[in-house]
Amino acid sequence: MRPSLTIAVCTRNRPAVLARLIDSLGEQEWPQGATLLVVDNDPDCSARPVVDALDSFPVVTEYVMEPRPGYATVRNRALDAASSSLAVCFLDDDAMVPPDWIRQMNDTFLQHPDSIVRSRYAHVPTLPDDPPGMVEAIDGLGDLKARQPAGTSGLLLPMGVLGDTRFDGYYDRSGGEDMDLLLRLGRAGVTEVLADTVVLEEQRVAPLPLAAQLRVARWNGRVATIIRLRAGLPTARYRTRALADAGAALARSLPRFVLGRRDGAKGYAALAAGRWAMATAPRTAPTSLGPRPLV
């Protein structure tokens, strides 16, 4: 029997948070024939004891180790390991999801079997560790429809639609592999739908210092333009719009700094830095990208 859905959790040297996520997934309503796949990107196999300790998990579990480091490489290993499934749904090990997350994602997939399904995404100060805490955290987010779609963590890919398309190893160190894949699939005519659910991730450093926010924003902005360059898309209007957005964001940030409203000022300053990086990124894509900045 062909697996109906594989939930693929990519992890690297974070067994404690992986165990927390898997514990929460054990309480989910899994569709018949679904499987849990853990892809360990740690050569020391730090995730193996977590998987081996699962003696009463509601679905079949599989563990694979991918020794080559990289965002795209580990996700491609997941796709290859789950190639017999109807769909693969990604989660990162540091995420948490509400109790009906798998059901919502699978129901949306069944309604739209030829479309990519995405969760929405939100950062929270502290991840809840029980159902009441999860309900409270999600209620605190307000209108979920105002939340941006998730990247790879919370992304369901129908294997029939995906075909031989894979994440690009060019983005192994930099990140952006999800944006690139979705752009290529979108240009091929694949549609996206949003499930009525959310993926939560904890703010690792709250609030981030301004220097860190600017560093990350500049990096993400630069990579966003490089993705368009490598896809062969024109960037002139894209850069012009980004430059205008940068100026507007900077104009909003300066009065807030003067008035001492630093939290709001930081947000606009980071937006300005990211948009400026989009506008001033290289005109040709570099041979390789460096590592994503750590925060």
Give me a quick take on this structure.
This protein is an alpha/beta fold and 295 residues long.
Please describe what this structure looks like.
The structure is a single chain. An eight-stranded mixed sheet has the order 3-2-1-4-7-6-8-5. It has ten helices and eight strands. It has two domains: 6-202, Spore Coat Polysaccharide Biosynthesis Protein SpsA, Chain A; 210-280, no CATH class. With 295 residues, the protein is of the alpha/beta class. The model has no long low-confidence stretch (mean pLDDT 90). Helix 8 runs parallel beside helix 10 and helix 9 runs antiparallel to helix 10 (262-280).
Indicate the overall shape.
globular
Number of domains: 2
Radius of gyration equals 20 Å
- The number of helical runs is 10
Strand order of the largest sheet: 3-2-1-4-7-6-8-5
Q: What is the helical fraction, as a range of percent? A: 40-55%
Please give the CATH architecture of the largest domain.
Alpha-Beta Complex
Count of extended strands: 8
- Portion of residues in beta strands equals 15-25%
CATH top-level class of the largest domain = Alpha Beta
Average pLDDT, all residues = 90
Low-confidence stretches: none
* CATH overall fold name of the largest domain: Spore Coat Polysaccharide Biosynthesis Protein SpsA, Chain A
SSE succession: EHEHEHEEHEHEHHEHHH
